[in-house]
Amino acid sequence: MKYPLSILTVFLLVINLQAQEVKKLTLKDALVYALENKADAKKAKLKVENSEYQIQEVRSRALPQITANGSLTYNPVLQTSVIDGSAFGQPGTAIQVAFGQKWNSVGGVTLTQALFDQSVFTGLQAAKSTREFYQINDKLTEEQVIEGVANNYYQIYVLREKLTLLENTFKITEKVRDIVKGQFENGLAKKIDLDRMNVRVTNVTTQKQQIVNLLQLQENALKFYIGMPIETKIEFPNTEFEMTPLALSEAPNANTRTEFLLLKKQEELLNYQKKAAIANYYPTLSLAANYSFIGQGPEMPWFKKPADGVYWSDFSSVALNLRVPIFTGFGTRAKVRQTDVELRSVQEDIKDTQLALDLDYKNANTQIENSIITITNQKENMRLAEEILKNTNNNYLQGLASLTDLLDAENAATEAQNNYTAAILDYKLAEIKLVKSKGELKSLINN
């Protein structure tokens, strides 16, 4: 039994290792994964696919419509008609005559073809715009997914930097605490100094645990944003986010933005919808053709012959149908006016969106410039704070600085590093907004 148990143990171990496999996730990897797996991105592509079926539905109205029909009728009581008896040699009398048979069965094929229907022609013109609308919507959805994932990814970066900072701070604080403890045990430090260092160690430990919890929540949020199973283990590469040079002076053309193009395409579709409503004023012309067989007799006519009293015959017809609308109770006019109101509303949205897109670019541009200044200042401030901390630490060890001075210098260094990290985050978020305002969010995948 030893060998089967060993094999089973190895098998379970392999499964466990596979389950614990860690997936490395760069920003590009996260974006590509999101576009392939996020429900919003998938649904947008399904809408593009569905638009093809909508186009086929509209196109079908211009094609011949062929239907087969059949019926079986039983008449328990035949209707009688009263006719002049002179036709039967009985002038001056009225005779009741029953027409028809107890059983009737009809089967045939009918073909109809629209020859002129303005609403059909307008629908065919709108078909291409419908496809383009959903294609633009798909692109907009991708951009929204990219923006959300990138923002979340940078938030994780900041938390990871804060965690690294707290881990370094904890090591330094713990080292100083051990020194103070040794001094206290040798009678060279006060009990209050050791207590303050113990409090400091506990505070840093608590802050570190809070960041660990926030980081876990943020990573779970990122998995949700990209459509990844929450139980998946992920790992982020240890890379610095650099300030990439951006063309701040090149003002984008708002007319090329996806949001603007989507509204313009919606305006185009509403124009077609208005034309389709106006088309109800036009006459329609259609061709109809029918070819049928009818069987009549005193018995159910199926599978029966003249010998059974059942007679079958065929008949056909060809008709040209003209429909001219004269008065619809002002319903058509109301529909046209409703569409016109919707069209004017979208035109106002277009104007407002154009202003909003220009505003987004200006604000992102300003935020980028301010962030660069802040990063430069905070980087120098961080260098000075670290230098002060180093000197203060040396002075403390030599008895030239108090514990309060050391703790203040440590807090100042931590705050400077946090401010620098926050400045980097502000820059990266502004960078996303700027890239978005220029309609180049997909460039984040290519970097």
UniProtKB/TrEMBL annotation:
High-level lineage: Bacteria, Pseudomonadati, Bacteroidota, Flavobacteriia, Flavobacteriales
Designated name of the protein: TolC family protein
Classification via PANTHER family: OUTER MEMBRANE PROTEIN TOLC
Keyword annotations: Cell outer membrane, Membrane, Transmembrane, Transmembrane beta strand, Transport
Keyword Ion transport: no
Any Pfam family hit: OEP
Protein's UniProt keywords contain Transmembrane: yes
InterPro entries, A to Z: OMP_efflux (IPR003423), TolC-like (IPR051906)
Family: Belongs to the outer membrane factor (OMF) (TC 1.B.17) family.
Coiled coil: none
Localization, UniProt: Cell outer membrane
